[in-house]
Amino acid sequence: MNPEPPARDRSDLQAEAAFKDWVRRLVTGAAELQALEAGEIDAVIDPATGSAILLPEAQAALQGSSRLVLSALDALPGEVCLLDSAGTVVMTNKAWRAFVVARAGAGLGVSEGADFLAACRDVSASERLHARAVAAGLREVLAGGRELFRCKYIFDSPGGYCAFTLTIARITGDGAVHAVVTRENVTERKRVRASHGPGRSKSRIAAVARAGTLNRLLAGLPAKEYKRVLAGLELVKLSYGDVLYEPGQQMRYAYFPCDCLVSLLTVVEGHRALEVGLVGREGMVGFRLGLGITTASVRSLVQATGTAVRIKSDRFLRECQRSPALQRAQLHFVNALMIQVTQTAACNRFHMVAARLARWLLMTRERLPSGEFHLTQEFLADMLGVRRAGVTRAASALQRRNLIRYRRGTITILDQKGLEASSCSCYQHVKITRLEAAT
């Protein structure tokens, strides 16, 4: 029978010596004992339990490594916390802890050991919509439905008004899944932007005007009506992974993409998502506002980084009431989008993955200024409603025919006509030029 290990109190030298003596009795063989004495062994296996037991030197090295990681996190100016697969906060940095104290727990200011998902559920009424979107995004990241989630979060706290961009990234290692949550405070940036709002310079107005003409819906308005809408437009940059709306969320703005791309996703069972529509410079995101509905029905996710112009929802509603031309343009776009949605539903049901991928790449290409764009396999799998293995096979088939090049998440279309020939017939029904002619 193996002896029971004595107490391992590192501050007690006698106990440590007794522990080392106990370890020596576990080691059999002259070579192993020599390696132990030379400090070349970090751990031994206890035959009684089958557990690995770290030697004191290895424990000290591990603790030193952990302290180094914590020190590095604390040195970062941004706010960072680490969650385990259940959503429990296992580590926070100094900036995050300072935020928790300053905001008295508001704005999802959770401490180590807390349940992040429970914190999302228990927020005040003013934060509920934002927190619900964050909880849905976190569940999806932890479940493997997406690698990255990003959203805006605005709230009032004892410390005053606060706005930040919250990002959740999935990390895996040794079979364990974790999520890193980072928070970028944009309060001052929003205040500066608001203070400059009414007195925007002529150059800024000119920049918005130029960007607005890149959007076909706005560019098609009569000059007089476009000029009136222009007064309420704001030029913004939309980044890959940004979520503009979640289902059920109030739509504070209507967006008109210029050179970016937005996917419309229907969310199933709280975390699984499937693309049902694609919007670029031909239309707008938030079209339900023109129908008098102020809540979103789908998730609007930025798929390609670029610029857009946006207008506050109440201002947009007023402009719709004043401008028959804007109403007609919006209804024409809604009709074209419904054709795209219904055709996509049929395509996902009846056509092969490679043909669907070709159709989807062509739809993306005609909405972007370049034939090269960043797309991960996870993202494509969500867009097409298939497994990653299906995306890999389909992309490989198109690449073997020299129609596309796919390297490290970047797709380049090499042969537009060849890709059209490989696409299913649905693409001819959803081409922007065909939809514009039909409306």
CATH H-level superfamily of the largest domain: Jelly Rolls
State Rg: 28 Å
Beta-strand percentage? 15-25%
Proper CATH architecture of the largest domain: Sandwich
The largest pleated sheet is described as: 5 strands, antiparallel
**How many structural domains can be distinguished in the coordinates?**
4
Indicate the structural class.
alpha+beta
Q: Spans of 5+ residues with little confidence (pLDDT < 50)?
A: none
Oligomer: single chain
Strand order of the largest sheet: 4-3-7-6-5
* Tally of alpha and pi helices: 18
* CATH topology-level fold name of the largest domain: Jelly Rolls
Number of strands: 17
Percent in helix: 40-55%
- Whole-number average pLDDT? 80
- What's the CATH C level of the largest domain? Mainly Beta
Distance between the termini: 86 Å
Q: What do these coordinates show?
A:
Helix 13 crosses helix 15. The protein contains 18 helices and 17 strands. With 439 residues, it is α+β, with helices and mostly antiparallel strands. The protein is 45% helix and 23% strand. A hairpin with a 3-residue loop joins strand 11 and strand 12. The strands form five sheets. The protein has a five-stranded antiparallel beta sheet, sandwiched between helices. The chain has a four-stranded antiparallel beta sheet with strand order 9-13-11-12. The longest helix is centred in the last third of the chain and has 27 residues. It has four domains: 50 residues, no CATH class; 114 residues, 2-Layer Sandwich (Beta-Lactamase); 148 residues, Jelly Rolls, CATH 2.60.120; 72 residues, Winged helix-like DNA-binding domain superfamily/Winged helix DNA-binding domain (Arc Repressor Mutant, subunit A). The model has no long low-confidence stretch (mean pLDDT 80). The N and C termini lie far apart (86 Å).
